[in-house]
Amino acid sequence: MISHRIPVILQSVIVAIVLTAGSSLHAELKLPNIFGDHMVVQQKMPVKVWGWTTPGQSVTVKLAEAMVAGRADASGRFEVSLPAMDAGGPHTLTIQADETRTISDVLVGEVWICSGQSNMQWSVNAAWDPDLEKLSSSYPGIRMINFPQVGAQEPILTHDRQWMVSGPDTVGSFSAVGYFYARQLHQTLNVPVGMINNAWGGSACEAWIHRDLLEADEQYRPLMERWEEKEKRHAELSGLKERTQEQQKTLQGLNRDMGGNARPANIYNGVLKSHLGYTIRGAIWYQGESNASRAYQYRELFPLMISSWRNEWGQGDFPFYWVQLADFRGEKTEPAESDWAELREAQTMTVSRLPNTGQAVIIDIGEGKDIHPKNKVDVGRRLARLALANDYGIQIAHRSPEYSSMEAADGKVTLSFNHVDGGWRLFDVNTPIGFTIAGEDHKFVNASAKVLQDGRIEVSSPAVSNPVAVRYAWADNPICNVFDAAGLPLTPFRTDEWDGVTVNNK
Fold this sequence. Notes:
The protein is α/β, with parallel strands linked by helices. Helices cover 26% and strands 25% of the residues.
């Protein structure tokens, strides 16, 4: 029986999938679409393969010279793990059950998820220099699969999308961040790289999380109640034999919401579930714009999402790296509160909350007039630095400088920092820009700053005689210029813990 939570527009799709899966239990061998020609499997790790066939049917899976056997359970599902292999290929993957399925041109290398909302979905075609990028895109060792955008409250276990090989005719539809990330890894490591692109523009973090986890936590009660009210109203209007014009308009809007990218668990079920468990090295993520109005909530919501993925994937604390929100909207010359700054803060907090995580700071490469900055090359490169250093043992600068501590005395605040690679490099002018300072009245003013000989930064303002707090790049689109010698920008921060503009937004 289909729950009222599932939008009407998707019911026929899910029913078709269920019926197809049901019929396969009696004869046909079914595989998730993640297993297909040109796929990349993870090197040096056991490779999980699963699918559906007749209940109790013996199954044999072979990749190159490796072979394993298994048996379908009472529901017809089987799952086996091939032994770890070194990078290489192309190989053939053969699955034999009721029938035999052969998958060709399989490479063994590095596999990463590229996920999030529109800035990860953003294609090479829409980034800078797509004509030049296409001319130099013939990398047979780089592959990507783009998943469709389907929202559902029950798991959809396969889709119709296939793996693509990088080249002039295909790379335009690749995730730009995912492609530039993969290209840097491929060129550096000299192994195949496969990217699983499941990004969905405008998606909210809660849509990527199993609904039960959200319903079990009281802090998400207001969020879930809003959606439950929508679902109740949807069920009421759907059940009417006749509807007024206004009711029909309301139902159409609810249909969009029920099958959309913000409803809790919609993307988890509709997209992620179809390949969740596929053996990967890790994930890169670019999302947060849609949650900026609830930035304080994101402090818990984002770590919950990462932990839930890791728990269900069954690969331990696999690497998870994300892009901090870029600069966006109009520049302001005076200090002001900012929900985007608070969301960036929530992202930074997650680094210390969870192991094997990292953050690419891009406060310098956004565009005030465009929420989708076209410079995706540097985004991919900064993410790649994290993976190359943390996962592949390459000695390279990878972590943006971060605020460490402060000392206030004689009307000045002296700041200390961690992860300053090679000292400071101030962009454009030789004076640090982007600092504000406040006293006990919580009123921030623009501050003067200078770099001391020991690398600390001293901040002051004649308007604040007894400063107690400093902020840096605390704005939607901050005017700031502090980098380390490796070219990584100082992470936006504040020293205070005063309530922000999103503290009560649930």
